[in-house]
């Protein structure tokens, strides 16, 4: 085993410290400083800070030239008030590590402790700490940063803990691991009128009433058949809370979800077409905004083969598992590297991700770290 009991005690204590100091997407300044401080003791060969905002890359060189293998974790927490009662519960009102990114960072920290003791023989091992995963903005900002060239990987691996799956059991599959998704805000603008004479204005009420079921009707297919799409209405607003005014303004927020990026493009076009047709019919102006844009995360077969060999070498039970409807801001790493993500079971009865009483199981830290280390050394020696 590459970790001593004191290593795991230190990483566990650090994970709990991170849990108590959650920072939401784009605001992970203290968390990034914690990463740099903790891993400075491993004497890395390079550290790149401020990647895509608050991102960090910690780099370990081998003695010989070779490829770069990156392991990626997330820095951000969620704007969710924690209701659980661990001694290390969140100290920041309305914020909490309810997705386990504190645990993912701890897994990378354990990998860093091992690499500090034993460098790869060749190439580079890079620990990537990504900001703003929860909004879908972090990976794009990181990759677009000119400093990213100093950490650009040939292979990128990642994980996510998964409640509902037996603790320590891994799901890993080739192809789509997480669906694409994005938020679409549709804004209608008309003209106010007295509520007694609505015909003298232009109200968005009829357009909104007609396209809500039409948008929901864009949902079709299944994950099993590979043509899954889903449109979920998340917010609707018409006018102001007054009885005397026929409103001029209205908006719909809809989350679009698809199994593929091509399917997402088609779904977005269909949703916008429905809204435009309703606006034209009722004489309304229309505008669109895109938010929380996540690409599909698609596992490359070569990266899956690498992880599968690591799982088998470490004796970690695994199966193909499912494609996740939920999105994950990892898909863009496939643009710059061979990539794959696996899901590490947090326990069948563990609180679900984003539940207010969720807490990362510390027993998963050595399991995840051993898998990643095995994969790193398989490529880099």
Could you describe the 3D structure shown?
The chain folds into 2 domains: 5-177 and 296-380, Aminopeptidase (3-Layer(aba) Sandwich); 180-294, Alpha-Beta Plaits, CATH 3.30.70.360. The mean pLDDT is 97. The strands form 4 sheets. Strands 1-2-4-3-5-16-6-15 form an 8-stranded mixed beta sheet, with helices on both faces. A 4-stranded antiparallel beta sheet has the order 10-12-8-13, covered by helices on one side. The protein has a two-stranded antiparallel sheet with strand order 7-14. 46% of the residues are buried. The chain is α/β, with parallel strands linked by helices and 381 residues long. Helix content is 31%, strand content 28%. The radius of gyration is 23 Å and the shape is elongated. The protein has 8 helices and 16 strands.
CATH top level class name of the largest domain: Alpha Beta
Please provide the ordered H/E string of secondary-structure elements: HHEEEHEHEEEEEHEEEHEEHEEH
**Integer tally of domains:** 2
Poorly predicted residue ranges? none
Distance between the termini: 17 Å
Q: DSSP strand (E) fraction?
A: 25-35%
Based on helices, strands and strand pairing, what is the structural class? alpha/beta
How are the strands of the biggest sheet laid out side by side?
Answer: 1-2-4-3-5-16-6-15
CATH second-level architecture of the largest domain: 3-Layer(aba) Sandwich
Helix content: 25-40%
Could you state the CATH homologous superfamily of the largest domain?
Answer: Zn peptidases
DSSP strand count: 16
Describe the largest sheet. Answer: 8 strands, mixed
Pfam families: Peptidase_M20 (PF01546)
Cofactor: Mn(2+)
Protein name: Amidohydrolase
Organism: Allorhizobium borbori
């Amino acid at each position: 085993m590459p970790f001593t009991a004191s290593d795991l005690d230190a990483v566990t204590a650090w994970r709990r410290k991170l849990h108590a100091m959650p920072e939401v997407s784009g605001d992970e300044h203290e968390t990034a400083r914690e990463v740099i401080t903790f891993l400075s003791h491993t004497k890395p060969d390079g550290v790149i800070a401020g990647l895509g905002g608050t991102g960090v890359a910690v780099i370990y060189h081998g003695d010989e030239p070779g490829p770069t293998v990156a392991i990626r974790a997330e820095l951000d927490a969620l704007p969710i008030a924690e209701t659980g009662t661990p001694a290390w519960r969140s100290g920041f009102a309305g914020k909490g590590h309810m997705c386990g990114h504190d645990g993912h960072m701890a897994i990378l920290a354990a990998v860093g402790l091992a690499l500090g003791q034993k460098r790869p023989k060749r190439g580079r091992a890079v620990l990537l700490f990504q900001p703003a995963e929860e909004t879908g903005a972090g990976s794009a900002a990181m990759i677009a940063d000119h400093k990213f060239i100093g950490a650009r990987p040939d292979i990128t691996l990642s994980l996510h803990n998964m409640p509902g799956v037996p603790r320590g059991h891994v799901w890993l599959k080739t192809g789509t691991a997480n669906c694409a998704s994005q938020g679409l805000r549709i804004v209608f603008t008309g003209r106010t009128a007295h509520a007694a004479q609505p015909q003298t204005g232009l109200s968005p009420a009829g357009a909104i009433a007609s396209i809500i079921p039409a948008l929901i009707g864009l949902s079709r297919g299944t994950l099993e058949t590979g043509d899954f799409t889903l449109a979920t209405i998340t917010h609707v607003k018409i006018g102001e809370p007054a009885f005397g005014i026929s409103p001029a303004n209205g908006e719909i927020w809809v989350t679009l979800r698809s199994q593929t990026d091509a399917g997402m493009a088609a779904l977005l076009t269909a949703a916008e077409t429905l809204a435009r047709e309703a606006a034209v019919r009722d004489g309304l102006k229309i505008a669109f905004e895109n938010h929380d844009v996540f690409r599909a995360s698609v596992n490359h077969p070569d990266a899956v083969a690498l992880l599968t060999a690591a799982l088998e070498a470490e004796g970690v039970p695994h199966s193909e598992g499912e494609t996740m409807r939920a999105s994950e801001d990892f898909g863009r790493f496939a643009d710059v590297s061979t990539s794959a993500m696996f899901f590490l079971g947090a326990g069948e009865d563990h609180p679900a991700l984003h539940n207010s009483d969720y807490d990362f199981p510390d027993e998963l830290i050595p399991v995840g770290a051993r898998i990643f280390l095995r994969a790193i050394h398989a490529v880099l020696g």
